[in-house]
Design goal:
With about 425 residues, this protein is mainly α. The chain is built from 21 helices and no strands. α10 packs antiparallel against α11. About 50% of the residues are buried.
Length: about 425
């Protein structure tokens, strides 16, 4: 595929000023949060803008940039008019437009059309998987990266169930591109990283929808890709998810070992937040083994690393990991150790801290809270929290959350004489 020449966006580069690309990307993400947008901006994206590869941003980025620089137009920021980049090349390389994203979300929420909507991710971004290009170029690498972002965005908002089956399409396409080879080494490195992250994302969709064997296979594929390409960041990510999966599968010792392997891979990456997450994964494994001392040691390490704050080296995929997720993961440790009242306090903080924009996580944390309260001897409060989860499940599709809520309902059966508990149990049975 022939490469198209790009004119550097010097205007945008001047607007970045003295900030590094990673620092400026963090500013973009903060600005997006201020207006309720979600963008997965990183240093690589800023580089693509400044190199001229992105001639016009998608609508989500447009709103963010205009919020950051009030009174300016896209032209003032060095971008080309949208109608000038509507050709075939732009369609293949640009992220989803606002209109396309809205159509996809509406189709997703239509229930029966959900898998068709999910398939749109792969077909729009990667084209015909049966006829990959002879040699992959920058546009294909960018398409793989954007597929990862779109899958994560939809999962954050709606859960994994309806996404999983057809999210495998862009994954197959990504590995077909790897097999085809790339026009240059830097592109091949991007393809390896993108395909590996896509394998982790698809593995997570399988994990969250209760397909544990499929998840294990996808995580192993990501780990193999990381090892082949020498990508320590991808290796740490794969091990983090493998540790989480092992815990959910009832293999706590494997969870500990995977988390420790991830920590070794992440040691040189310069991301305290990544080390914090891996320490929490390890703590969960120790809790599953009923080793309270080792669990507390790992939790202490997690809080110490988290307190160091964000860093430019933090991976893009860790955008979900804030104080709310830390509280949630600690809550699960105390629940595994049988301290449900203490677990409930952390789960409540997690639910309170979570940005409501991420409906899946709000539902997850509230489901954890309901389960902890039911087992801590607070059935009425548990029923209230369970009702909140049922409200959220109108827009979130997650087998894992439904399974957690079913466990809460079983725990509340002995308390069904309470009117609030009875109302929850009736509604849960109906749903």
């Amino acid at each position: 595929m022939a490469a198209f020449p790009h004119s550097p966006n010097q205007t945008f580069r001047r607007l970045r000023g003295q900030h590094s690309p990673a620092e400026f990307a963090a500013m973009v993400r903060r600005a997006a949060k201020e207006i309720g947008e979600t963008v997965s901006c990183d240093a690589r994206y800023i580089g693509r803008v400044e190199s001229g590869e992105i001639r016009c941003p998608n609508y989500a980025y447009e709103r963010v940039f205009l919020h950051m620089f009030p009174g300016r137009t896209l032209a003032d920021l060095g971008f080309s008019p949208r109608e000038a980049v509507r050709g075939r090349s732009a369609q293949r390389t640009a992220p989803f437009t606002h209109k396309e994203s809205d159509v996809l979300r509406r189709a997703f929420m239509a229930g029966g059309s959900a898998t068709v909507a999910a398939a749109t991710i792969g077909l729009t971004l990667l084209g015909d998987t049966r006829r990959p290009p002879a040699r992959a170029g920058e546009s294909e690498a960018a398409a793989v990266e954007e597929a990862v972002r779109q899958i994560r965005l939809l999962d954050d908002r709606h859960g994994a169930d309806a996404l999983y089956r057809r999210a495998a399409e862009p994954l197959r396409a990504a590995y077909a591109l790897l097999d085809a080879g790339a026009t240059r080494q830097s592109t091949e490195d991007r393809l390896h990283a993108g395909a590996g992250e896509l394998a982790v994302s698809v593995g997570w969709l399988a994990h969250d929808s209760g397909r544990f064997d499929d998840a294990r296979s996808h995580y192993a594929e990501a780990l193999a890709t990381a090892r082949v390409s020498g990508d320590a960041g991808l290796e740490a990510h794969a091990f983090s998810n493998m540790a989480f999966l092992a815990r959910d599968c009832g293999r706590p010792r494997e969870s500990v070992r995977a988390a420790q392997a991830g920590r070794r891979a992440a040691r040189s990456l310069g991301s305290p937040r990544l080390l914090s997450l891996l320490a929490l994964r390890e703590a969960g494994g120790w809790a599953g083994l009923a080793d309270r001392k080792a669990c507390e040691d790992a939790l202490t390490r997690a809080h110490t690393e988290f307190s160091r704050g964000k860093a430019a080296a933090d991976p893009e995929w860790m955008s979900f990991f804030g104080e709310a997720e830390l509280e949630s993961l600690e809550s699960r440790c105390w629940a595994a150790l049988g301290e449900y009242a203490r677990a409930a306090r952390h789960a409540r903080r997690a639910a309170d801290l979570q940005d409501p924009h991420f409906a899946r996580n709000v539902a997850l944390y509230t489901a954890e809270l309901a389960g902890d309260l039911a087992r801590a001897g607070a059935p009425d409060e548990a029923a209230w929290a369970g009702g909140r989860v049922l409200d959220l499940l109108t827009e979130v599709q997650s087998t894992r959350i439904r399974s957690m809520l079913s466990g809460t309902a079983r725990a509340l059966v002995p308390h069904q004489r309470s009117p609030r508990v009875a109302a929850f149990l009736t509604r849960h049975a109906t749903v």
